Each structure stands twice: as structure tokens, then as C-alpha cells.
Amino acid sequence: MTDKPSKTSDTPSPDSPDDAGANERPTINPPFDLEAFARAASSPSDQPGATSDAPTNRPPAPHWDPEFGPEARTARISLTSEVEQERARALSGRKPVRTVTSSVLSIANARASSSPHVAPVDPAAGGPGEAASSIEAAVRDAIGESSPPEITERTIDDPVAEMRERFSLGDYTGALEMSELILAEDPDHVDATECGENCRTVLENMYAARLGPLERVPTVLVPRAQMRWLSMDHRAGFVLSLIDGSSSVDMILDVSGMPKLDALRILHELVQQKIVSFR
Amino acid sequence: MDKVIGIDLGTTNSCVAIVENGIPTVIPNRGGYKTTPSMVAVTEAGKRLVGHIAKRQAITNAENTVYAAKRLIGRKWNSPQVKNSVATSSYRIVQGPHNDVRIVLREKEYSVPEVSAMVLQEMKLIAEDYLGAEVGKAVITVPAYFNDNQRQATKDAGEIAGLDVIRIINEPTAAALSYGFGKNVEKTIAVYDFGGGTFDISILEIGSSGVFKVIATAGDTFLGGEDVDARVIDWLVQGFREEHGMDLRQDRMALQRLKDAAEKAKCELSTVRETEVNLPFIISSGRNEALHLQRTIDRQTLEGLSNDLVERTIDICRQTLADARLEKEDIEEVLLVGGMTRMPKIQLAVAEFFEREPCKGVHPDESVALGAGIQGSALVGDKHDMVLLDVTPHALGIMTQGGYFEELIPQNTTVPTHRTKIFTTSRDNQTAVKIVVMQGESERAEEDELLGEFILTGLRRAQKGTVEIEVNFEINADGIVSVHAKDLETSKEQSIEVTASSGLTRDEIRDMMEGAKDYMVERRTTEEFEAAKQEAERFVGEIERLLPQVEQIVAASDFGRDAIDKARSIVTKARSAIAKRDIATVKGEIEGLSRTHRMFKGVVAKTH
């Protein structure tokens, strides 16, 4: 903390509170791994250096931060549930990112495109955040509600190795994203195709297990008139529109017209947020 | 007595009916709806969807959802209607091996009768679920203008679906049958049929002893309720664009919701003056938030949007009456058929045109299927007073010099029948004549349907008009047309047998039947398994809920441990069988699970 570069204090975030505690928060600047950061932020005693060593200015070129590099990150991923990772990814997708050219693969970009944003809102509480998970709350604490992180990219030297590593550590969503990025550049990549399919199967089974028997019929708990006060994206809105009180989850998956995994994930989010329930 | 179902195989919706204890009844589907969308889709996972479920994903899975297959059935690849469909359909239509039409779904080609068979199979299933017994026979309706090939293709579709199609009848005739059921009417009626995808107007003469003659029929196969929906969608899209500057058409999910909402609003406006279209989160704003569509539409707006479409139907009615040389006063009753006729504006337009209030006695969605059901019941029952006579749907004849059509057997002639006519050569020293067999009503042969052709050779060289050739048309009881041409001087003759063709060979139909049967077996097995699984899972859940209590209660007894172990073993077996999708074992375990559940409940109840 004492070695904090003077640059940081010269350029404080305009929305940051200037109390002592707030000064210890990192001004989120990349290279940035939101999940690792979120974990670090939610357990500061375990990771004392995580916040203080975070750079305060955007570096000239993306590089692996030793603290948040693959090793540190993946070691923690195995302790985090897919759902928590999804939330973190959803948050990370709120900022637009630059388009990637050449062969540099962008993690931030991948997450932004593949994460349906279904942020919870409790109308009674008057805003988002009431039903948020601890990880999400920790992230918000760390970065401040009004100054969302500036997401940038980090390069990956060996995307195939990264994909395999993520898969072996049980980060199936991450591995799937990597496989999609690889396939975007090389549609015939055998390993990426296989890994992507495996990830999809595992994730589909995982969400299906959480939803319970797919013959069950979901119902919408939120009155129609109040629906527009919820916070969700149009994809979630579409899935919600398919819930008519007589169609089973299986039928909804069939008619959604979106990949099964996406539909399952959205349905799961809707159930988690108590927008949807089962009869 | 065999149960015969009547099926209205519509362009957009189908309906099935039966006569039960003398009362014609429409059979609702599993969702409780009395009509089922005539839509078939194949999902990404290869699953077949038919009916409402196919309709709900029709836009998001547009390339693999077939609608309005009826516009293509029995038609040749090069027909104008097929070309029109190729240009306007979202699914792929390709040329088949017999110059027929094929539809591509998920890279697999299906013939049109095969697709229609999937809808018919669904209607058969609906009837079987309702009756609790297998259904074998059916009467299917077709538009009055369908030619022999289209009728044969519909019959083939029935056969592929596992149905014995005992009669094909005209839709307006079926509606008239439903109207005349239990009454003794002799009238000239107009059937104004404005459905989801097509418009038809037919003038019928209902005579005594079951003669229903179609005097005239016309329509537009690309005009229906969907066009009205499209106008409402346009209106909503335009309003949204003005408000938010975004085009909802660019997003398939938004478009699917719009389509459903537009249809719903249209239907509601038949009974209420205004309705709200409320579609929250319809499209992404591009800033990680979604926009909502909320608009009120009133009846006047809807009528304004669809006015020209209604006018088009009235123009067709006017033309049809003129063609049939009938006056409005000759029409003694007007029947309204098809969902669109619920629209007050249409009822008013029809009443104004025909200068009489339309009949309210027939159900717009159900009357055609009910008529088919009535006919089916009459065909297998003792009461034959309502049995329709089999008639030729179109005139039959040959092409003569100058490209004209010479009629030999007029439209609506009861079969079997035969007619003969003498023709002469049209050129000097003509030694051969080509007999071109046609079907239709147009004087111009090119506008009629070609059924077949053959050449009679070896004619005597002579001046034109001197060699006489006798042409004989014969239609037997099975509808097979034989045409003979005979040189009266030499008695040389040639003939051709014309059988209506759907464009499929017998082998193809047989293969498709096998495929349909396999699908049914698979579907029934899946349903059976799902039912058994649900029951088993319900017991397993209950047993596991009671287990800790029972364990506690019986812990002290000698037999307690044994009973608990047995219960656990049954649960494990059931779970394993469910995981392996072993239907026989799952079903076998249900009895044991039920017994265990009863026992557990008893134990718990006794201690409380």
C-alpha cells in the first residue's frame, strides 16, 4: 500500500469516496481478471497483495499479471461454482470492448458475447443488488456501484493450452469460450470442436440437473404489469415470453430457437432470481 | 363398427371430428385446442415438432419449419404456385426425382405428402387419445379446385400416416354437409372460406338425396389471415422504429413474439374494441438493456390496415358469381368458414355484397371437419342418406387444333362414367394424331392440367376432316381414367390409362409408411417411458422424504433394518432403470415402490 504510485492519487476515480478504506480499493485497471479479482476482493485476508499490487493505469500492452496469471486464477476457479462464474462474467460483459484484430484472442470480448445478462432486480428494494450473490456484492464493494470496471483485453499465447487447462480444472464455461474463439479463427480445429462439445454437454447436464426434471412446467411469478421493472436482456425476455403455464421446460427448449445451453442457462437464472418457479 | 374420423387438413390449421352417438363432435388436442397448426419442424437436435409447438418456433427456426405445405401438395415442380412458394417460403423447396416437389429440413429431403402425413398422423393421434382406441379410417377434405393429382397426393399422405382414406371430399361440400346435418335443405348456397392462408369462395347446389354440386369455385391461395397479421406486424414495427429508431425485424426472437402478439391482437379485436400489445424486453438497445414494446391497437386501425385484403375477397366473389352466370339473388344462404370470418368487418362486407345476413349456424373453424366426420360416419353406417356421390372435380377432355380444350366429361359428373366423341384430322394427308388428355375448366388448354398423351398412328392419307377418330373417356369406380382413340375406318386403336399421381412411386410410399410407423413406435415408447418415469420418481421422492422418520421409528425392531434395506434396494433399482431408460424395469419397479410408499406412510401415521 505504501508503494502505491503517486499517479494513483493524482488521478482518483471521480466517483470514488475519498475515505481511507476507499483508497485501499484498487482503481480497476487491466490486465484484469474479474473472477480472480472478485475472489481476491471477497477474501482480502487470504490475498493481501491482490488489491495493492493492482496497477492503476492501463499498461501500454496487455500482459499476464503475475498475481492474476493463469496459475493463480485457475487455482481459485476450481473453488468457484459455475453459477458464480457466470455472474462474474455477466458483470464483465457490461462494458463494450474493442474489436479484436489479428490473432490476439480477447477474453473480455468472448465473455461479453456469450453471457446472457440477467441481472437481478428486486422491485421492492428499488434497484439491483438485493438478491445478488456474495461474489457480486464483493465485486460491487470493491469497485463501487457508480464506477464500473473498465474492461480491456488480455492476450493468450496458447489458446489451446488455455482451453485444455480450463477444462481440466472444471471451468467448462471458460473452456467453451476458448473453444469458440479458436473455432472462430479455425472452424475445423478438431480439439476445439471436441472440447466445445464436451463442455456444452457438461454444462447442459449441470443446468438441467439444477432445474430438475425437464417435464416440469414453469410458471412466471412476476405479474405481467410489473415485468418491465425487472432487469434482464431481450434473450431472457424471449425465454420468459415462452413460459405460458402449460409448456414444460423440454418444450420451451424446443421452441426457444436458441442453443440448448443458452436456453437452460437463462431458465436457470430466471429460477434463481425467483422470476420463474415450477408448479 | 369402425370409427371413421373426419379431417380438415387446412393450409394453416387442421381439425379432426367424429360422430359420437349421432352427434358430430370436434376432438380437442392435448393442449385443449380444437384446431392444430398444420406446421412441421425439425429442431437442431433432430426432434420432430408438429402443431402448436412447431408454430411457436416458426420464426426462430424458420429454415426448418414447414407451413402451408398444402399449397405444394400434388403439384409439379414447374407449376406457377410452386415457383411462388419457392420465392416466398423460408424453408428450402427443391425439385424431386419425378418432377415433384421436395422440402429440405435439416439437410434431409421430404416429399410434400410425407410432410402432410406428419400433420395427419398428429390428427390421428389426437383422435386415438380421445377415443382410447386405434383409428384406421378417415375422410379428408380438400379445396374444391384440387385436381386429381392433388387429391391423390392427399390420399397418399393419409396412407403414409397409417390411415385408410375412404373418401376425399370438397371443403365447401363438407361445410354444407355440416350446415345441412339433420335438416332437409335444397338450396343454392355460397361458402365464403377465409382461413389463415387461403381464401375460397364456392357456390353449391344442395339437392335432395345427398347431391352436393359445386357450381363454381374460385379463390386465392396466397391470401389469408396471415396477411392481416403481417399488416399488424408492419404497424407495430413502424411504431417502434419511430419511437426507438430500431428495426424489430432484424431480430428473429423479436419477430416471433411480434407474430404471436399480432395474431392474438387480431383475434381479440373481433370481440373487443381495443387491445394492448405488451412485449417487455423485446430487443436489446445495444447498451446492455432491453427495450419494451407497448401499444394499443383498436378495431378501426385493424380494419384500416386490412381493408384492401377484404376488398380482394369481395372482388373474387363478384367474379365467381359472374363466371357462374348467377345473380346475388340466386344465393339463398351464405356460410362463413375460416377463422378470419370472425372479423366484424368481414361479416359486414359479406352481408353487404350478398345483400343478406350470413348464416350463424356453422362454426367457422370446425364446420369442415364436422362435415368430413358426418360423411365418414355415413359411409360406414347404415344411414346412407347423407352419402355424397363421387364426382369428377374438374372437366376432362383433350386438346384440339389451336390449343383449345375440348371437354368430354364435364365437371361434377358422377363416377363411374364414360363419354365418346368423334374427331377428325386437321391437316391433309395426316397419318398420325396426338391425343393430349387434359383436366380443367379453361377453354385454353395451356391453362388446364396435362394428364397424359399418346399418338395414334397408321391413319389413312386423306384430305383434312375426312378421317374420323373416335375418342372414348372412361372413369371407373376407383377414379382411374382410360382414354381410347380409334380410327373408325381401320379400327386401329391406341389407349392410355391415366391414374392420378402424387409424384411418389409405390415403393417410396411404402418406405415412407415404414418410416412413419417407426416414428410412431418411438414416440409411443418415449411417452410410455416418461409416464412410468414420472410415477416412479414421484414414489422415490416420497420414500426418500419418509425414510429418516421410518428409520428412526423401526430402529429398535428386529425386522426394521431389513425393511429399510429392501426399500433402499428398490429405490436404487428404480433409479438405475430410469438412468438406463429401461422401461420394462421402471414399470416393474412401480408396484414395489408403491407398496414401500404405502408401508412407510402407514408406519409414520401409526406413530403420530
Question: What this model shows, in words?
Answer:
The complex is a heterodimer of chains A (279) and B (608). Chain A is 48% helix and 4% strand. Chain A has 279 residues and is mostly helical. Among the domains of chain A are: 1-93 and 128-146, no CATH class; 212-279, Winged helix-like DNA-binding domain superfamily/Winged helix DNA-binding domain (Arc Repressor Mutant, subunit A), CATH 1.10.10. In chain A, the strands form 2 sheets. Chain A has a two-stranded antiparallel ribbon with strand order 1-2. In chain A, helix 3 packs across helix 8 (134-143), helix 7 (107-114) crosses helix 10 and helix 10 packs antiparallel against helix 11 (190-211). Chain B folds into 4 domains: 4-224 and 309-380, Nucleotidyltransferase, domain 5, CATH 3.30.420.40; 225-306, Actin, Chain A, domain 4, CATH 3.90.640.10; 396-498, Substrate Binding Domain Of DNAk, Chain A, domain 1; 506-607. Helix content of chain B is 39%, strand content 26%. Chain B contains 13 helices and 26 strands. In chain B, the strands form 7 sheets. In chain B, strands 1, 2, 3, 4, 11 and 12 form a 6-stranded mixed β-sheet that branches. In chain B, strands 15-14-13-18 form a 4-stranded mixed β-sheet, sandwiched between helices. A 4-stranded antiparallel β-sheet of chain B has the order 20-19-22-23, with no helix packed on it. In chain B, helix 5 (171-180) crosses helix 10 (367-380). The model of chain B has no long low-confidence stretch (mean pLDDT 90). Chain A binds chain B through residues 93-94, 117, 213, 215, 224, 227-228, 230-238, 240-242, 246-247, 251, 254-260, and chain B through 31, 43-45, 47, 49, 53, 56-57, 59-61, 251-254, 256-257, 278-284, 288-292, 294, 530, 534, 537.
